[in-house]
Amino acid sequence: MAMELCAGGDLMDRICDRRRLGEREVRRYTRQILSAVEHLHKHGIVHRDLKIENFLLDEHNNIKIVDFGLSNTLKPDSLSLELLNTQCGSPAYAAPELLAHKKYGSKVDVWSIPSAVMASYHLLLNKFNRSHKGAKASKVNASQHTDTKTHRCVDMCHESLAELSCRRPFIMTDFRE
């Protein structure tokens, strides 16, 4: 088995080492994560365990998603006819339907992305007030922000953390900006 070397460690290591990253760097990582997850979903792969510990950095400081041990496949063209039902992943990042033993699709990954992004912002920028109670949505306080790009990020997090998966955006169409 051959694997790519990710000499930059994981995103959590970077957070701990740097103590503070700029918003621009966090946005760059977020774009890379969204692009990678979009690629997975186009090919019918649902990761089911997206978290900052599963985002590695290569020598050019680019995100690489790892740990596909819990991933599964869905037919990309299926209209939710073949859903998944295994409860797995990290509870702090898991979507409500996954924790509730309900059938689910690729939008469980959409839930996990802002959870990881908010954790990055919380740890790096101390801009978000995040409270996580089981399957309840994390809360983001947008009133602390002045940058319009930050407001858009907060809006994306709110939309992606919708408790009903049918109300969450699709990565391919809704996160282009």
Automatic annotation (TrEMBL):
InterPro entries linked to this entry: Kinase-like_dom_sf, Prot_kinase_dom, Ser/Thr_kinase_AS
Class of this enzyme: transferase
EC annotation from Swiss-Prot or TrEMBL: 2.7.11.1
Keywords for this protein: ATP-binding, Kinase, Nucleotide-binding, Serine/threonine-protein kinase, Transferase
Entry keyword annotation includes rRNA processing: no
Extent of the signal sequence: none
Reactions catalysed, as given in the entry: L-seryl-[protein] + ATP = O-phospho-L-seryl-[protein] + ADP + H(+); L-threonyl-[protein] + ATP = O-phospho-L-threonyl-[protein] + ADP + H(+)
GO annotation, cellular component aspect: cytoplasm
PANTHER family: MAP/MICROTUBULE AFFINITY-REGULATING KINASE, PROTEIN KINASE DOMAIN-CONTAINING PROTEIN
Protein's name in the database: non-specific serine/threonine protein kinase
Organism, scientific name: Xiphophorus maculatus
